[in-house]
Amino acid sequence: MEKLQGKTALITGGNKGIGLGVAEAMLQQGMKVAITGRDTEDLADAKAKLEKIGEVKTFQVDVTDLAGQETVVNEIVSDWGSLDVVIANAGVGYFAPIDELSAEQWNATIDTNLTGVFNTVKASLEPIKKAQGYIITIASLAGTNFFASGAAYNASKFGLVGFTQAIMLDLRQYGVKVTTIMPGSVSTYFNNHTPSEADAWKIQPEDIGQMVMDLLHMHPRTLPSKVEVRPTTPPSK
Fold first, then answer.
1. Which residues are in the Ketoreductase domain (predicted)?
2. What are the tens digits of pLDDT across the range 87-113?
């Protein structure tokens, strides 16, 4: 995209962590940003922080609700006139050996991390095609590297990588770009973690924000369709 000033974006799970870092980066370049989340208090805190930078909307909605995603997209287009960028970021993680992993944990992981992205993309298709916009999904290195106790999470992220690459092929004929970003360890609140100074070695949310902006500034003829990103110097094991 040549100019980002005034462009509009939807970020799922934008109330903290990676989503919030991406929202801040977009607002700093003059974009209008709508974020979604499930927690009212987190959304209010995020809105108070983001409003100091630029124009922001917040929506309390779950990505597993397709109708809810459609309502969000319709309101964005109605108020702002377009939807140019979608960042499908919302995700959950349950980690347990298969003999301990519950059906509820499996369903919650797949429903949010995979079906939730489908819902967000499906709801956004018409305005994104009209804008010849950009869809970015936030996957994980767990979408390539499997590990013990990762049955649900690995399945969701392997699926998300495959889904994103397939829709990239579907949508480029309309001038729509699609990329999946696959981070390693990121300093976020994911899986009930509280970031601290001990996380200084990890990728920071603002680093992913910078990466998203780099992708949006990429020349239209070039598409990095899958981007793996790791901490430069993880602790020695």
1. 7-187
2. 999 999 999 999 999 999 999 999 999
Q: Evaluate whether 62 touches 38 at the Cβ level (below 8 Å).
A: yes
**Order of strands, sheet of 32-37, starting from the edge strand that comes earlier in the sequence:** 56-60, 32-37, 8-11, 85-88, 134-138, 177-183, 226-229
State percent of the chain over pLDDT 70: 97
Q: Which domains does the chain have, with CATH numbers?
A: 8-229 (3.40.50.720)
- Mark whether 189 is an active-site residue: no
Separation of CA 16 from chain center: 11
d(CA 181, CA 89): 10
In this structure, are strands 85-88 and 56-60 parallel, antiparallel, or unpaired? unpaired
Backbone dihedral angles phi then psi of residue 63, each to the nearest 5 degrees:
-65, -15
Distance, in Å, from the CA atom of 198 to the CA atom of 201, rounded to the nearest integer, reads 7
Q: Which of 94, 134, 153, 189 is catalytic?
A: 153
Per the listing, tokens 């992981």 go with: 109
In terms of DSSP H, where are the helices of the chain? 17-28, 40-50, 66-80, 103-110, 116-131, 151-171, 205-217
Local structure of 102: helix, strand or coil? coil
149 or 236, higher pLDDT: 149
Is 57 in a helix, a strand, or coil? strand
